[in-house]
Write a structure and sequence with these properties.
- The complex is a heterodimer.
- Chain A is mainly α.
- Chain A has nine helices and no strands.
- Chain A is globular.
- Chain B has three domains: 3-169, Glutamyl-tRNA reductase, N-terminal domain (Beta Polymerase, domain 2); 179-347, Rossmann fold (3-Layer(aba) Sandwich); 383-464, no CATH class.
- Chain B has a six-stranded parallel β-sheet.
- The radius of gyration of chain B is 31 Å and the shape is elongated.
- Chain B starts with a strand and ends in a 9-residue tail after the last helix.
- The chains are: A mainly alpha, B alpha/beta.
- Chains A and B meet through helix 5, helix 7 and helix 9 of A and helix 8 and helix 13 of B.
Chain lengths: 278, 466
């Protein structure tokens, strides 16, 4: 069996485990049994472990962290999301986000399987500490911000139910507004910190490869825009009390901008990151 | 066979005056159960008395051992009449006063009624959780006074397990069905930890105070009371404050309130403020319960907006239970401010009540199943079926074992027949004395006990799908 086959099988089993986790989290929504969350969490952990194994195998094949075509990028992004969810869940008990994280991971895995197997860009400069740190921190940050967006969406659903006094399907099943708000806030802080680190390492890497920190590449510009949106959100929260609804809307807007920076720029505009999403 | 009968009155059949007149305190119930012990017609009895119902469950003894159907029913009638007379004498109330309100259930109807009561399907507020504890207390009393026997013991244990099953498998206990609980449910959906939240009570009133007490029992530790008359605010604050409160608030008229307040008094700090300070307090409190007699809004959207920026938009939850309303409805339009008035809360309660009624249908099905099972056990708890079952079990074992042995021995037909005869003789000789004893225990008040023991010893209850 070749290493490629092993990696493929690992990704396949991981996807199956993620799908199981998603199913359990969704059934938790219908039948509020606490142990469901534990099963769901266990499955996503098992999935992430195999997923990580798959990435390791690919790394051995490639000789560096694999993020050089769309498929590899999606695998990395999905692992970042499941990993970040696992860490945040352990640290801050943000169980409810499993409802958001697990389907998103599954979607990314399936997208990765379906994406064309373009030969990954191979270039001698795509190596080194700064590049690996850049990839890891950026994807972790983006994953945390995705979770923040998820918490924001759940917040808006719950807030609407309470404000309009129409207690529907979700009212009973979602946790308190305060918990959703603090979940989102914790995720934003984590994500923003990682994103900042990711941008800085990116700049340093750019300097080491192209001799300049900043080259007005569309990716760079949109990354700065994304960073500014989240900076504004945190600033507003700390100084003028942007809580709850406003903060939730901002996390969703921020994530939309982030998604555009991640995929939209590459697909629509281009730039020096473009080959990684082909 | 034992006849289970249940007589009683409840909130559906009798007014509160009559329920009070027939209610038993636990001392009275003890005395009554002791007195009933001398009644030869009653084998087992239990008295269950709460604010909403008074019921006597009893098992009557057939007047003679072997009876035709008709006689047996008569014996039951006899015991029932004697129980009604006893109730009338004991409570010093002519039977005519309560006869029309009294319901009499027999056999499976009585079992079903008891199961429904224990499962809170017969309660005024369906699914209220106190009833099971009250039934348990009544059973403890009966068992302490040795007035419960094999039938009631088993019946009550089945009642407890069906009650738990109904609560576990249906949603009859979910969702608040009182205004104050509905308010707390909402508070729990807005705030994550009530123990860190501060509550302000504007005005006074039973419902508002009850809501505050519920909040305290859900962990709230800081209370502010504001009242137009400052002295009243001080008195009320002292009542909530755990350091000043002498704990005599558990007044008698709340005993019958279905919504009892849990008795874990945490350390609560309550302070009184002047009514004029209410706007300033909005900066520090999180939950506001308003119940003043004011005809104008005591808090307006302008007040709330102003304090919202002072408190950096931390959420505020307003519970307005005053009529006319105390709080400007426009407050609900402000970000992070949530306002519920009495109508909003009432509609939650109504919805939840409907929900519980739907769930109760499932509960009824579970109860029906349990009644059928119990009835089957009870029918078998009689001399003839018990003897038949024991005999069948022993004979089956004997035949099977004999068959096995004979198959491996290759004996002639005559020898085989001799061995079979021998085993049959052994069986019937062993069975002879136990069966004779069961047919006449010499103590017919307790014969169900021996029957049950025999069934347990030979393990034949389980053969009936129990």
């Amino acid at each position: 069996m070749t290493l490629e086959n092993i990696a493929y099988i690992l990704f396949l089993i991981a996807t199956a485990l993620y799908t199981g986790s998603m199913a359990v989290y969704i059934s938790y929504l219908f039948r509020q049994k606490e142990e469901f969350q534990n099963y769901g969490f266990f499955l996503i952990c098992a999935g992430a472990l195999l997923h990580f194994g798959g990435i390791c195998v690919t790394t051995i094949i490639m000789g560096t962290l694999p993020a050089y075509n769309l498929q590899q990028t999606l695998y990395i992004a999905a692992l970042a999301l499941s990993g970040t969810f696992i860490v945040l869940n352990q640290k801050f008990n943000l169980k409810i986000l499993g409802l958001f994280a697990s389907p998103l991971v599954v979607i990314m895995m399936i997208a990765a399987f379906m994406s064309p197997d373009t030969p990954p860009l191979k270039a001698s400069f795509l190596k080194g500490f700064w590049l690996v740190s850049h990839i890891v921190t950026i994807f972790t940050g983006e994953a945390a911000l995705a979770l923040a967006c998820g918490a924001g969406i759940l917040y808006l659903i719950q807030e609407k139910a309470i404000k309009e006094k129409r207690r529907g399907f979700f009212y009973k099943r979602l946790p308190s507004l305060a918990l959703l708000d603090s979940t989102s806030y914790t995720s934003v802080i984590t994500g923003f910190t990682m994103l900042t680190t990711g941008l800085i390492t990116g700049l340093i890497y750019a300097k080491s490869v192209w001799g300049t920190f900043w080259s007005w590449d569309p990716k760079e510009i949109w990354s700065a825009v994304t960073w500014l949106v989240y900076a504004a959100l945190l600033h507003g929260r700390l100084t003028s009390g942007w809580r709850g609804r406003k903060s939730a809307i901002m996390t969703i807007v921020g994530f939309a901008v982030l998604l555009f920076t991640l995929f939209g720029v590459n697909l629509l505009i281009g730039g020096h990151h473009q080959p990684f999403t082909k | 066979m034992s006849d289970i009968t249940l007589i009683g009155i409840n909130h559906k059949t009798a007014a509160v005056e009559l329920r009070e007149a027939l209610a038993f305190t636990s001392e009275e119930a003890t005395n009554a159960l002791n007195a009933l012990g001398n009644n030869t017609k009653i084998k087992e009895a239990m008295i269950f008395s709460t604010c909403n119902r008074m019921e006597i469950l009893f098992v009557s003894a057939p007047s003679k051992k072997i009876q035709s159907e008709g006689n047996n029913i008569e014996a039951g009638e006899d015991a029932t009449q004697s129980m009604i007379n006893f109730l009338s004498e004991y409570k010093n109330l002519p039977t005519t006063r309560f006869k029309d309100s009294l319901y009499i259930y027999k056999g499976s109807d009585a079992i079903k009624h008891l199961f429904r009561v224990a499962s809170s399907l017969d309660s005024m507020i369906i699914g209220e959780p106190q009833i099971l504890g009250q039934v348990k207390a009544a059973y403890r009393l009966a068992s302490a006074n040795k007035s419960s026997g094999v039938v009631i013991n088993r019946l009550m244990h089945k009642a407890f397990s069906i009650a738990k099953k109904v609560r576990r498998e249906t949603g009859i206990g979910d969702n608040a069905v009182s205004i104050s609980y509905a308010a707390i449910e909402l508070a729990n959906k807005i705030f994550s930890d009530l123990s860190e939240r501060k509550v302000m009570l504007l005005g006074a009133g039973e419902m508002a105070e009850l809501a505050v007490e519920h909040l305290i029992s859900h962990g709230v530790k800081n209370i502010v009371v504001a009242n137009r008359t400052f002295e009243n605010a001080v008195v009320l604050a002292d009542k909530f404050d755990s350091n000043k409160n002498s704990d005599k608030v558990s007044d008698k008229n709340r005993r019958c309130n279905a919504q009892n307040v849990e008795n874990n008094k945490p350390s609560v700090v309550a302070e009184a403020v002047r009514f004029e300070e209410r706007e300033q307090m909005l900066k520090d409190v999180d939950i506001i319960i308003s119940s003043t007699g004011s005809t104008e809004y005591v808090l307006t959207a302008v007040h709330v907006k102003k304090s919202m920026s002072l408190r950096k938009s931390r959420p505020l939850f307003f519970i307005d239970i005053a009529v006319p309303r105390d709080i400007d409805p426009a407050v609900n339009k402000i970000d992070n401010a949530y306002l519920y008035d009495i109508d909003d809360l009432q509609s939650i309660v109504d919805d939840n009540m409907d929900e519980r009624k739907k769930e109760a249908v499932k509960g009824e099905r579970l109860v029906d199943e349990a009644v059928i099972k119990f009835q089957r056990w009870l029918e078998n708890l009689d001399v003839v079926p018990t003897i038949v079952a024991i005999r069948e079990k022993i004979e089956t074992i004997t035949e099977l074992e004999t068959e096995k042995t004979l198959n491996s021995l290759h004996l002639g037909e005559e020898e085989q027949e001799a061995i079979k005869r021998m085993t049959r003789a052994i069986t019937s000789k062993i069975m002879h004395d136990p069966i004779r004893f069961l047919k006449n225990t010499g103590n017919h008040r307790n014969d169900t006990f021996y029957l049950n023991a025999a069934r347990e010893i030979f393990n034949i209850n389980n053969m009936n799908g129990d």
